[in-house]
């Protein structure tokens, strides 16, 4: 199965049902009055974490999700049926970002966790709601509120406690296959691993943790070279890094240079990654020259003083299984004392630019005025357009109510200030009317 860890989708919540204009006309009932009911609420779209999913593959061919609209109101004051919410399942570790604003909306990591990504519109009010002593028989009804629409980016960052990093063909997949039940592809050529592989490590003392074999990094990965840039994001969630270095000498790469290259790529991507506990794991120690190469590596590491806190060195041979048990026990010990690290992209709580989960009113003006192609005045803006969409223009009283709402918003004064004169044409979306001073 293909591994997909980034995708853009469009989500559209259902609009509310329209309220209706209706009057009670029954035998032996005098002065029946307004009897139109409200519309039902439109369905929202809710992202829900499903621990059974491991990839965003389901979104590769389905990119548009639309919830149903609410039903219209009925006579006898009956409210229209509200639509069910649409649940969209996503894997654990998915970050949700608004494509238009770049704001991170949610980071969903817990099984069953839910997030309302777009809210359904409320139902429009029927004419029963507008009856007053001064107007006991109103011919006013609202259209349903439009459902919210968003284009979002889903980004999967695998949930692993321990990440295996290193140049290609240093033995990461082999180590994962031996200490877990995972079956990654293993072969004697670079970039055998094309997707992250996960496995569960269970120790004899009852402790367990999730280990991820991440595709091989090469120099320049943080700038887009090779496969590394596609999967560096998955390192962000790991709490302990096992840095495998080939000590066999067969690939003609200097172990210390390899160590510095990989850490430089981690640093370029996110400097905070170097603050995480890191264990250097010299691999292939069963080869003839490995011991000599390891001794030289230790000397260069001590002299270079590359990292502020010199990492532990725990050599292993995956083939002979030498050193595996001490490595896994030490890794578990570090996990016991290492808290989860905050996401690189997530903002701190007191950051004024953070995107809140609630859909709050913004500070944008209610409307803007511009000049159209034919010289007409064009009113635009999310708030005023929403107000128009909820106006039932089939009834004169509803249109007059809309005119009063525009006046109360200051539209008349703003048009005069802009130079509008009596008889000028004014447009809102596809609706046009004459300005009357």
Q: Give the termini separation.
A: 67 Å
| Alpha-beta classification | alpha/beta
Strand residue content:
15-25%
The Cα radius of gyration reads: 31 Å
Q: Please count the helical segments.
A: 8
Which outline best applies? elongated
Arithmetic mean of pLDDT: 83
Classify the helix fraction into a percent range: 10-25%
Counting DSSP E segments of at least 2 residues, the number of strands comes to 18
Main beta sheet: 6 strands, mixed
Residue windows where pLDDT falls under 50 for at least 5 positions: 184-194, 218-229, 344-361
Following the backbone from N to C, one meets helices and strands in this order, namely EEEEEEEEEHEEHEHEHEHEEHHHEE
Strand order of the largest sheet: 10-11-9-12-13-14
Keywords:
437 residues, alpha/beta, six-stranded mixed β-sheet, 18 strands, elongated
Describe this structure in words.
Its cofactor is Mg(2+). Its main location: cytoplasm. It is a single chain. This protein is α/β, with parallel strands linked by helices. 20% of the residues lie in helices and 21% in strands. It contains eight helices and 18 strands. The chain has helices at 172-179, 228-231, 255-269, 290-304, 324-337, 382-389, 396-409, 411-418, and strands spanning 6-12, 45-49, 64-66, 86-90, 94-98, 104-108, 114-118, 149-156, 162-165, 197-202, 208-213, 240-246, 278-283, 312-313, 368-371, 377-380, 425-428, 431-434. The strands form four sheets. The chain has a six-stranded mixed sheet, with helices on both faces. A five-stranded mixed sheet has the order 3-1-8-5-6, with no helix packed on it. β5 (94-98) and β6 (104-108) form a beta hairpin. It is elongated and about 100 Å long. The protein starts with 5 loop residues before the first strand and ends with a strand. The relative contact order is 0.11.
